[in-house]
Design goal:
The structure is a homodimer.
Chain A (H helix, E strand, L loop, with lengths): L6 H10 L2 H11 L2 H8 L4 H7 L5 H9 L4 H10 L2 H10 L2 H8 L4 H11 L6 H4 L4 E4 L5 H11 L5 E8 L5 E6 H6 L6 H4 L7 E2 L4 H11 L3 E5 L5 E6 H19 L14 H19 L1 H8 L1 H6 L2 H4 L1 H24 L8 H30 L16 H32 L9 H24 L8
Parallel strand pairs in A: 1-2, 4-5
Antiparallel strand pairs in A: 2-3, 5-6
Chain lengths: ~450, ~450
């Protein structure tokens, strides 16, 4: 189309396909200048529908390249209030200011209000394009008013009833309006038990309430109970997906990455990964100190060193399981910090049961499958006693499993309690934390069971 | 209320609060028999609204206790088609059959159709309660018909236009119907580019399309393009949350747990955790074999053993990061299996950059902070050369980091390719996989650099 400069085909393309499809196709094929040329074949309203579906990086590039500031200002006036607040928050402040000077007074005020909300609040998620009505009109008048409001509103399926101070009185669904007699009064139809969220509420909590109560949209009120916006289910789906990604990244030991995996900058991703790897690496260095402390044990009974990776890995794995289950249960609201003792008791039993299972397997493996030659000791000392070794491995595996399970389950609760995201108590974090203690537990049990066979350093 | 047997208060409670709130309050406070007594104060329609919000375990208990089969059959007739299909799928087959015999012919057919869909398909997620119209009627007629259909339908905000064979022709929103002239013909208003999913499509894919295109509802068609149901955004939010939980559990090395953390049965959770822990434990046993293979190195240069936990932990941590990023990018559709080479190249560079960072830190730590006494060797052999040791640690840490990153990124892609859920290539799984190779890499580098200082076994 672009080669033939077929403006009609471009227009048809922009206006008949879903805006998300148009944006995706243009992103994959064209430069910013070509995209603007393509978009100019259609109306500014259609452009405003398509624009928010471009990837964020491309949106920023499009704003600063290939088209005039007046055009961008018009586009911003036509975009839905939550989409444009999102965009303007990401632009460099001087660019935003320059653009806002060209935007309508009313739109400018609306934008200023929305971009002041912190990113993770209901206020930042909401749109101000909601349908509203006074309480004392008939259904017929209500439908007439909605016909006037509708073209600009993101959803008119719920209509909010407010008083003169914009305080929320009730809600009526479009469906109920249509089913009702045309002469009925709106206040008689409205549901007065309205679920709402505050503009300062955390967006994760909003998502949880959506999931629980099956809403299409939910009103947002400010501290004075005045209606300031609505949150729609499509935005909530985005939040749930973004939060799941952030949680997964934290659990994998990465600072959450918002950007598309294949498109994000190398330096950014390097930073987000290196910071955790270096931290974990430095913390893990204490395993060296712990190992050095038990140097005598390894020199007296050399086979002990061979079991170290096996024994300490148990702590990491059992801890990772427990921390994942608790972190997810916290995210879903199934467990709160005040349930810590129930969780502790549960994990104490579970850790003991899992530890017993693994301990038995570990003991059996040690007893039946340890090759004779590794039991030799240096300096003419007698061979290592296989029964004692079996006891050491069985007990150490059980104890480390129990310990890993308890640490893995309690760390996320502790973090939540002191205001750190519980996802930070991720698998790698817990594994590192437990490795050092695992070494201490293992060698302490060995010293206890082998007794004088473990001599002092030469 | 129950103590005073205040039926009116119970009725008001059931009818004014949100069904989810009613269900939650009753679940926390009462026995199944008391819940039925409480519910009997309100109409069967209200009971059907409240019932699906009870936890699944309680729903099953309620069906088999305290009330007659006729009552349950009535309740099932009133429940929305997706909720009741969910319930009946979980009941023991004889109970389901017994109940279905008492249910209306039409409802029975509808249920039979829905429960045959496998759990993860669009068909199992959809409801058959959608609003539909023929194409050749006026808006006025359309609104009249909707008034008749609406009370039973889960959503009437989108109305689907079908031909005589129920093939999907288009969609019109309630909002457009209200905005249009009353004499306009529906077929002139409808959008004919309809996004739909097939009843056999995977529900994760459905959730992705919802997220991408911002729908409230989406039609579902069968292999002959006949409309068979719709999927609404509230069900999609549930899917996204459930899938995020399942993914998180897999990443933490647990078979996904659907049940509430504090309420699930101990034996079930034990099984779901033990199976992975035992598998990982048995796999990790090869670290013993690897360590035994390098017994001579540890006996000749005893300080080498002390660095083992530190060196191999790098593989687990870097692998866990890479597998998390790739698994999540796969789930979001940002990466597909065919992108494997781009991902490989990306992770090759990233692994090298991260490895260089950690290698430098590791080398510095070894050179400056290794206490002199651990460098002693048994049998009068000379002390270990600190420069050589520094080189070994620096190189091993870099190499293991690169190796862990590559394995962690490629395993999820390989698993997806051969039809295993990529989340199975979780942190613990990758860590176990990489531990053995980490030992081999570490000691091979040590042998290379120390050369003849590492003698054969005595």
């Amino acid at each position: 189309m672009l080669e033939k400069n077929d403006r009609l085909a471009m227009e048809t393309f922009c206006e008949t396909l879903h805006p998300a499809t148009v944006a995706e196709t243009l992103t994959d094929s064209f430069s910013p200048e070509e995209i603007w040329y393509f978009l100019s074949s259609t109306s500014i309203e259609h452009q405003a529908d398509i624009f928010p579906y471009f990837p964020v990086e491309l949106q920023l590039e499009l704003v600063t390249s290939g088209t005039g500031r007046e055009h961008i200002a018009k586009l911003i006036e036509e975009m839905s209030s939550d989409d444009r607040a999102d965009l303007l928050q990401r632009l460099p402040p001087p660019v935003t200011e320059n653009l806002l000077r060209l935007v309508d007074e009313a739109d400018r005020k609306d934008i200023a209000k929305l971009i002041q909300y912190p990113k993770n609040t209901a206020g930042a998620l909401m749109t101000t394009d909601y349908a509203w009505l006074p309480a004392n009109i008939t259904v017929d008048e209500a439908l007439d008013r909605l016909r006037l409001q509708a073209p600009d509103k993101e959803t008119i399926y719920y209509v909010y009833i407010v008083d003169e101070q914009r305080r929320l009185l009730g809600v009526v669904s479009l469906r109920d309006l249509i089913l009702a007699s045309r002469r009925a009064i709106v206040s008689d139809l409205m549901e007065t038990h309205v679920f709402y969220v505050r503009d300062t509420d955390d967006r994760e909590q909003v998502a949880r309430e959506f999931g629980e109560f099956d809403f299409i949209a939910m009103p947002v009120v400010d501290a004075d109970n005045r209606l300031v916006g609505i949150i729609t289910s499509d935005d909530v789906i985005d939040v749930v997906v973004e939060e799941a990604t952030a949680d997964a990244h934290r659990m994998g030991g990465v600072t959450p990455v918002d950007e598309n995996y294949l498109e994000a900058s190398f330096a950014l991703i390097w930073r987000k990964r290196a910071v955790w790897l270096v931290l974990l690496f430095v913390a893990e260095m204490s395993t060296f100190t712990a190992m050095a402390h038990f140097d005598d044990a390894m020199k007296s009974i050399t086979v002990l060193a061979l079991f170290v990776p096996l024994c300490i890995s148990i702590g990491g794995n059992s801890g990772s399981q427990a921390s994942t289950l608790i972190t997810r249960a916290l995210a879903l609201g199934q467990v709160t910090v005040s349930d810590w003792f129930r969780a502790f008791r549960h994990e104490l039993l579970m850790g003991a049961a899992l530890g017993a299972t693994l301990g038995l397997i570990g003991a059996a493996r040690t007893y039946f499958m340890t090759p004779g030659h590794v039991l030799n000791n240096p300096g003419g000392a007698p061979d290592t006693d296989i029964t004692k070794l079996t006891m050491v491995i069985g007990l150490a595996v059980s104890a480390i499993c129990l310990y890993g399970t308890l640490i893995g389950s309690m760390l996320p609760l502790l973090f939540r309690r002191i205001g750190i995201d519980p996802g930070v108590a991720s698998g790698p974090f817990v594994a590192t934390f437990v490795d050092v203690t695992g070494i201490v537990i293992y060698f302490s049990i060995a010293k206890l069971i082998f007794g004088p066979a473990i001599g002092p350093l030469e």
